[in-house]
Design brief:
about 400 residues; mainly alpha; ABC transporter involved in vitamin B12 uptake, BtuC; two-stranded antiparallel sheet; 18 helices; about 70% helix
């Protein structure tokens, strides 16, 4: 029945082909048969997978083989050091081995990992659904573009200023939404993101409107001008350093006092307040610290592309960053990195299947959300075990 209904719905698109030049109609009945057969067997496969998921509901909550392997590596100092070396060496040698195109794609991926880790503070740790995160990203990018255009301020000067601007913007957004949560918070943050985009688009005297700002300076290396290839390589190493700094800060924040307050706020806001946690301060800190990384990533984005316009900061960007956090695993640093690699690199490497790549992309997202709702690599909570006078804890992420 599902197959017949789907074949009926897709009939005008897949079967009828009108040639307006010759005035003829081509009937492609084989397409309808193929769709019906594929839907019939696909429906059976989908139902079988759902039934299997229900039977193994308890097993789904357990750690996967990859998660157990990562936990084992992180629990042993020698294995942890060897694992870090195994990641660091290829990461450092990447631009030397691969060409300019591959390096450029990887820089984009690193930017989105930093953005995902920043949003992970707000959504994954504090549980505040933010659909306007791209506004902080845009504020950093436009701050660098405008300061560079009018006063020739360089990249390294603007990087901390972009971070500070993101912090201020995060506090400005945080104040009006202190009493909101859930769907209401999502709608307000979505509106905030759209307001910023519309201001950038219509305040043409300052932002150049839809035409955008071009000829933004790339970062210089001790005053030396770099070629495009050298600049891309340089940008790669800048992003690699920024990523290491982000992972270090987010990991430290996660297990700090404020990190535990964010987790309490996420689990139960009323109980969190009853325990004496300052809800206002906790929420504002989450928005401010999350926006800080978006501001820095925006400065890097403007310096990498040398051109920005409002079309670079649409709701689609916020949706992609949120998808990175949700699919990777909310609150998990490893999960966000895995989510960014899949969501940014997979569409790039599927360009050969240009007609079907977004279809495959959407199918992957649906499969993950249905069969792995906690994300690819779920967050691991620190567990304390009391053993007499000694207290031991599980490894951090």
């Amino acid at each position: 029945m599902v197959a017949a209904w789907f074949a009926f719905l897709t009939f005008p698109i897949l079967v009828v082909k009108v040639n307006t030049i010759d005035g003829t109609i081509l009937w492609r009945w084989e397409n309808m048969v193929s769709i019906a057969v594929a839907t019939f067997f696909g429906s059976y496969l989908w139902r079988w997978l759902l039934a299997r998921k229900e039977l193994k509901r308890d097993e789904a909550k357990r750690e996967t083989l990859a998660e157990r392997l990562l936990t084992t590596i992180q629990s042993h100092p020698v294995l942890k050091l060897a694992g870090l070396c195994a990641i660091a060496v290829p990461a450092v040698l990447y631009p030397q081995v691969f060409d300019l195109y591959q390096t450029n794609i990887m820089v984009s991926c690193l930017v989105f990992i930093v953005l995902g880790l920043g949003l992970n503070i707000v959504v994954g740790l504090a549980g505040l659904l933010d659909l306007g995160y791209v506004a902080f990203y845009a504020s950093g990018a436009y701050a660098y573009a405008l300061c560079n255009m009018h006063w020739d301020i360089g990249f390294w000067t603007m990087l901390p200023i972009g971070a500070a601007l993101g912090t201020v913007m995060g506090v400005l957004l945080g104040f009006p939404v202190l009493r909101l949560r859930g769907d209401y918070l999502a709608i307000v943050t979505l509106g905030f993101g759209e307001i910023i985009r519309l201001v950038l688009e219509n305040w043409g005297e300052v932002t150049k409107g839809p035409s955008g700002i071009s000829n933004i300076s790339r970062p210089e290396f001790f005053g030396m001008k770099l070629t495009i290839a050298e600049s891309t390589m340089y940008m790669y190493y800048i992003m690699l350093g920024l990523l290491v700094l982000t992972i270090f800060c987010v990991n430290r924040l996660q297990y700090s006092r404020i990190g535990r307050a964010w987790l309490a706020l996420r689990e139960d806001e009323i109980a969190c307040q009853a325990m004496g946690i300052d809800k206002v301060k906790t929420k504002l800190l989450a928005f401010a610290l999350g926006a800080t990384w978006a501001g820095m990533a925006g400065v890097v984005f403007a310096a990498r592309t040398t051109f920005i316009n409002p079309a670079s900061f649409t709701f689609w960007e916020s949706a992609i960053i949120l998808s990175i956090v949700v699919i990777g695993g909310m609150g998990s640093i490893r999960g966000v990195i895995a989510g960014a690699i899949i969501l940014i690199l997979v569409p790039e490497y599927l360009r050969e299947f240009s007609e079907f790549r977004m279809l495959l992309f959407g199918a992957i997202m649906v499969m993950v959300m249905v069969f792995r709702p906690q994300g690819l690599i779920s967050a691991k909570r620190k567990v304390y075990t009391y053993k007499g006078a000694n207290t031991a804890g599980a490894a951090n992420e």
